[in-house]
Amino acid sequence: MVATGASLVVLAVVAVLAVSAGSSSLGVTDVVRTLLGAGTPGQELIVLELRLPRVVGAVVVGACLGLAGALTQTFARNPLATPDILGVTSGAGLGAVSAIVLAGGGYAVTGGLLSFGVPVAAVLGALVTSALVYGLSWRGGIDSYRLILIGIGMTASLGGLTSYLVARAQITEAAAATQWLVGSLSGMSWSSVWPAVVVLAVIAPLAATQTRALDVSQLGDDLSTGLGVAVQRHRLAVLVCAVLLTAGAVSAAGPLEFVAFVAPQVARRLTGTGRPPLVGSAVIGGLIVVGADLVTRTLLPGEVPVGILTAIIGAPYLIWLLIRHRKDERA
């Protein structure tokens, strides 16, 4: 609880700094005063309409990915079992790119089933992909390593389909899809933030109901069943929650790589728990994304998409984890 509370304080501080950062000179006191309703009309426009949606979006997207990663890593009992590796992110990405390329290149698109826009297309893509991965992995139960291997193969296949759609698209649609695929918070508005906020508000309480089952499931399937946990039903519920959280995040900011992988592991080490904590993972996920966005806007030349920085941070961590896991096996 102490580590989670401290992380929340750090997140609040970084979020205020992120709102104050930009071409228009606004101090932290100006931001706080504006948020409390005492700012000038110009400050209210800059803070509430231009910068706050981006910062809130970063926090919510990071929280969705951190929570989704904690759920999948825990139910599979494997730190590699994240939405990125299981193909869920790629499925959501393919659905969203299909909406962008096939229906006009905007956030709110039209045309058949895609008439509800990118968020719904991302959810459909993620659900279909997760169902395929889960079905192909089923052999009288789910083995985490088989699930990961099938997820890796599905990710590669969906990545090829996404590249095909981008290659066949018109130049404006291809540009919009390519920018979105990198993972960026640029140009985020309240209309693109609200779907992710709604997903987080609805799914987070549902995920919390699985806390006891997640704790018991760490003892193994046989003991979990003996203690009254319906293992397969529990895994399906956890997977659906993780899929919806990932789809909500991807629809808002694109596929931000490795956030769902890194955040739960950092939260687990900070709290000293045996499994990734749900609340702590969400907080760390939000902190990673909003912090990375602040760095890209203030310390790097130009405005680098935040997805590039999260990939740069996450890839070495993945390599380190694999090397450490192999050393532990040899020991």
UniProtKB/TrEMBL annotation:
InterPro entries: ABC_BtuC-like, ABC_transptr_permease_BtuC. The keyword Acetylation does not apply. Keywords: Cell membrane, Membrane, Transmembrane, Transmembrane helix, Transport. The keyword Cell membrane applies. It is found in: Cell membrane. It comes from the Bacteria. CDD domains: TM_ABC_iron-siderophores_like. It holds the Pfam family FecCD. It is a multi-pass membrane protein. The chain crosses the membrane at residues 51-73, 85-107, 113-135, 147-167, 187-208, 278-300, 306-323. Belongs to the binding-protein-dependent transport system permease family. FecCD subfamily. This is ABC transporter permease. It comes from Frigoribacterium faeni.
